Fold this sequence. Notes:
By secondary structure, the protein is of the alpha/beta class. The protein has helices spanning 2-21, 25-50, 186-189, 209-215, 224-228, 244-267, 291-301, 313-316, 339-349, 367-374, 389-396; strands at residues 52-58, 62-64, 69-77, 83-93, 99-109, 114-121, 127-139, 146-148, 154-160, 194-197, 219-222, 230-236, 271-277, 283-288, 329-334, 355-360, 379-383. The chain has two domains: 1-160, Sandwich (Immunoglobulin-like); 229-396, von Willebrand factor, type A domain (Rossmann fold).
Amino acid sequence: MAKYRALYALVWIGSAVFALSYESKLTFVLFAGATVLPVLTLVLMVLSGALLKLEVAPDAGYVGKLQDFGIKVKVVNRFAIPVSPMMIIGTFHDRSGSVIEGRRLVMSIAPLRKCEYVFDGCIRCRGEYILGIEHAEIFDLLRIFRFRLRKTPMCRVVVMPRRIMLDEAAALCTDDYDSSITKISFMESGSFASVRQYKDGDLMKHVHWKLSAKHDELMVRQSEQNLGSSAVIITDLHSVSEIEEEDLRAADAAVETALALTRKIIADGRTAVNIYRTGDARPDVMSAAKPDDYEHLLAAYSVIPVTEAGAGAEALAQNAGEYLTGSEPVFVITTELDGDNLASIQRTVGKACGEIRVYLTGSRPDASLLARAEASKNTSVWRIDPEDISLSLRESMQPSF
Length: 401
């Protein structure tokens, strides 16, 4: 832009010299034109900018990780002269899964026309993203003035974590957790408290065949313990690295692990009590006993942020006591944990639960953590591979103690 201003200054000075040196109508018209033309283009630019309309519209407000989607940028020129050029600067995604600030788009719009451009790509980490136009400006026809548009639209896109389904036949919450009195499954003993209609994900061995034949639809047996018992899932997403991408990757693995466990527990006919931190870093509790609860939890976990290093899973464990009766498993999913913090968790819930399983998603267990777990009869530590969460969980379903 400075180049065009310098060229115009030379033209104006040249016309002024000619007008003073050659006192004629031609040199006067040249000088007058060089003086008036910038004012005219400035007025037209302001009117054009006032009549421009910008719109930003995503394909969907909720998308999955690495799922392709587009954001359409539309510029409507409602003035009788063309807009050329126009520059837009914003934050948009690309095909590699990155969110890039400062992406530039230069376009021209014919009179009374619209121009559209679509940013295609995906995002590789779950979370809430504000995408769209941060800065937009147009120039006059001489490129010596600029007009910045005040209204620059943005849009909100929520990227949801992956839905991971665990093997239906694998044991997650075994019958050991159903009661501290008996170790015999109610399915094996034939005793049950109620029946309900079959749902997707229910095990076929829980079907009550006689009642199913009578009602002409599948009916599933539920034990009294199943109706009241819970598994508690503590999910902690605190920062473990100075590299933001590593923090996001570890947090995504923790969220997807918690959701996979919740989905499996619901399929087994139990209730999963999830404890996590919200956007304001305060603890929150959400119980999930049916598929609709899982969907609500999925939406909540899509946007919970990575918190600063500080109070971790041991602080969240203080909210678990009222949901434990002595036999439930407690799953502690965290990006990082040491032996002292595990000791704090054991003091808080160790005597009120059946087992404590620790899943690390951002670091490997250190010696103090392993020693503390080995010294306990009901604690195990597992490392989650973010690239294969399902396999990591399947391996943990066969405790070594």
